[in-house]
Amino acid sequence: MLIPILIIDVALVAWSVHLMQQAARYREFSFVLAGILVAISAAAMVVVYFLMGSCIDHLTQISHHGR
Asked: Average pLDDT, stretch 43-54?
């Protein structure tokens, strides 16, 4: 499951860089904002993936300990 998420993140970062390049070319603030939001969403997706993995591991340990 990690590989598809990393591929999606790389695509999001590439899109963010593309938006930032367009912002520099056209001197448009909306492209800067869009690039920042896309980069933040890529970072948040990785953080949520690792937090949920840790949470699932914790819940699995609790369920095995209760048996």
From this structure: 91
- How many CB atoms are closer than 10 A to CB 53? 12
d(CA 56, CA 48): 12
Q: What angle do CA 55, 57, 61 make, to 5 degrees?
A: 115
Q: Which of these, 51, 33, 40, lies nearest to 12 by C-alpha position?
A: 40
Q: How far apart are CA 31 and CA 15, in angstroms?
A: 11
The letter for the amino acid at 6 is: L
Q: What's the farthest any 2 CA atoms get from each other in the chain?
A: 62
